């Protein structure tokens, strides 16, 4: 039997840049990273999320994602958003914790939204507010963080203030990303991103509906000719209307609207 002279205990100490590395490995492209933020807005109970890919200044483009969802409390920022590996999404999916006001099945996977912001840019500013709470602002400068050798030596400051973005009874989350790691967005990427974020929009109007809006200042023409949900529904040649009564009785009507210029009966 070996005779040990002394015993040492040492926890794992991840390097500060590990979150960027995880973002690079877990999220295949910058387009998918933005889509992940849109899915996070859906999971947060938002009715509307806007994505602004500002390419008006080619030397300093930026990305802004704003939703009107539940927002985050200080505890959620500390225990979920700033804790990689947290099982918050898994618990929501299994119904172990509240899924938000619409009880939506989460679209986000494994908390990738937190890694998405790290993949997209070096400067991150997150502003969020939950119902009845102050507004919280988190600013991350990845160049400063990476200068620190280990993640536990690079604390993030959370600032509390009276609401300036989400005033009155408004709630939600605003993420502003600058000093982008990919400054050369292509037309095809932007159009593909638009199709992705509109693909999860609800075609129905109601309190629980979800709408995604996208703007590309500097290249507005890139989105011309693309259809949103309303345009697709308005052009549909077949239209059904269903009414379901409180007793479960269903009545419906059908209308065929031929495409102009095409002779179909």
Number of domains: 1
Instruction: Give the second-level CATH assignment, the architecture.
Output: 2-Layer Sandwich
Average pLDDT metric: 85
CATH class: Alpha Beta
Overall body shape = globular
In CATH, the topology is named Heat Shock Protein 90
Helix content: 25-40%
| CATH superfamily membership | Histidine kinase-like ATPase, C-terminal domain
Rg result: 23 Å
Ends apart, CA distance between termini:
91 Å
Q: Classify the oligomer.
A: single chain
Number of helices: 8
Strand content: 15-25%
Judged by helices, strands and strand pairing, the structural class is alpha+beta
* Main sheet: strands, sense, barrel: 7 strands, mixed
For the biggest β-sheet, the strand order reads 5-4-3-6-2-1-7
Low-confidence stretches: none
How many strand elements? 9
**H/E element string?**
HHEEHHHEEHEEHEHEE
Report on this model:
The protein has 265 residues and is of the alpha+beta class. It has 8 helices and 9 strands. The strands form 2 sheets. A 7-stranded mixed β-sheet has the order 5-4-3-6-2-1-7. α1 (18-26) packs across α5, α2 crosses α5 and α2 (30-43) packs parallel to α7. The longest helix has 14 residues, at 30-43. The model has no long low-confidence stretch (mean pLDDT 85).
């Amino acid at each position: 039997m070996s005779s040990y002279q002394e015993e040492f205990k040492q926890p794992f100490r991840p390097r500060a840049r590990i979150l960027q590395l995880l973002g690079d490995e877990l999220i295949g492209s910058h387009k998918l990273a933005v889509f992940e933020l849109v899915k996070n807005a859906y999971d947060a109970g938002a009715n509307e999320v806007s994505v602004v890919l500002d390419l008006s200044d080619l030397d300093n483009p930026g990305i802004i994602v704003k939703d009107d969802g539940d927002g985050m409390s200080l505890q959620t920022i500390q225990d979920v958003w700033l804790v990689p590996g947290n099982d918050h999404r898994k618990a929501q999916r299994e119904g172990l914790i509240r899924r938000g006001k619409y009880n939506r099945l989460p679209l986000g996977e494994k908390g990738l939204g937190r890694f998405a912001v790290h993949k997209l840019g070096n400067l991150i500013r997150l502003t969020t507010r939950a119902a009845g709470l102050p507004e919280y602002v988190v600013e991350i400068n990845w160049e400063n963080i990476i200068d620190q050798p280990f993640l536990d030596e690079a604390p993030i400051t959370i600032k509390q203030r009276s609401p300036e973005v989400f005033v009155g009874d408004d709630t939600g989350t605003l993420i502003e990303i600058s000093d982008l790691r990919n400054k050369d967005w292509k037309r095809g990427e932007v159009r593909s991103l638009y199709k992705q974020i509109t693909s999860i929009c609800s075609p129905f109007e109601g309190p629980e509906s979800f709408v995604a809006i996208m703007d590309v200042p500097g290249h507005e023409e890139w989105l011309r000719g693309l259809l949103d949900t309303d345009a697709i529904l308005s052009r549909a040649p077949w239209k059904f209307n269903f009414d379901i009564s409180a007793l479960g009785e269903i009545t419906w009507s059908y209308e065929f609207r031929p495409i102009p210029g095409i002779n179909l009966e």
